[in-house]
Amino acid sequence: MKFYGIRIILFALSFLAVSYAQCGVIDDKRENEILREFLWQEFVSLPKDKRPKIGVTLSAGGVRGFSHIGALEVIKASALPIDYMSGTSMGCIVGSMFAAGVSQARLLDLAENPKLSYISKDLTILGVIKYVFGNRLFSSERFQEFIESEIGSIYYEDLNIPFACVSADIKTGEKVVFNSGPVALGVRASMNLPGIFAPVEYRQRYLVDGGVVDYMPVDLVKEMGADWVLAIFSLPDYSKSVPTTILGYIIRTGDLRGAFLTESSEKSANFLIESRVGDIHSFNPGESLKALEIGAKSAYGSLDQMKDNLLLYSVDYVFK
Q1: What pTM did the predictor assign?
Q2: Has 89 been annotated as catalytic?
Q3: CA 13, CA 38: separation in Å to the nearest integer?
């Protein structure tokens, strides 16, 4: 639609809204809702080359990251066009499956029935004994097989939405980006919690969880080509509990570093949805549905502000 066409319709809508408001039919709040939804429908119907490229990035967070499933369900229902995605650790798992076209019903099913056996064959009583007394880290190889069973043995180039994820080389401290090659391998490397799982050996690198170097990869999705970035962060509350186990301290240390890294990422994003997951433990699958529900509520509560932010950013594109 041309600029003058939109301008005429906007004028007509504004005139009707003001007229109805004067008659007491609608108030200012409803007037804003009408104008927002009109502009939003115009925006989402624009061709890709007539609007800003939109990126979505998902933070790490363990079980707390199941909140991303709920948030993405709301975002998808809003018809927000997504051109690029990035993620770290749990954000990588959810993001890769979403980018591959896994249905929301299947993602919900995984949240309802999470199993530690999906991650490692070593997460058994015998495996824990070997971990504690034998100084033997768990293998995450089974998780790569699980991802392949969900999306197939596909490559990043085959995904419906361009997607990239982050891992870390524990030997050099370098950030390693996966945007080509087998998807399942990159996802495994991105969620490979150090101190728990043995490093993934790949091309002379020793790869562990990407949250060590980039907890919420906003810059990565910008490098892919995104103009406007929506960051979705599973925000914990550390004040409610103190770790009492070795595993708890390992996870808390990673979480605290992640919180530090996220501060700069938040500033780089255009809009942030914070899923306030409270004291949900990052390694307790029994709380996955609770995290999902929090994510959905957080995204829904932020939806109007997100639309306003993006529409304001997109003025030059909408009115070309």
Answers
A1: 0.87
A2: yes
A3: 9
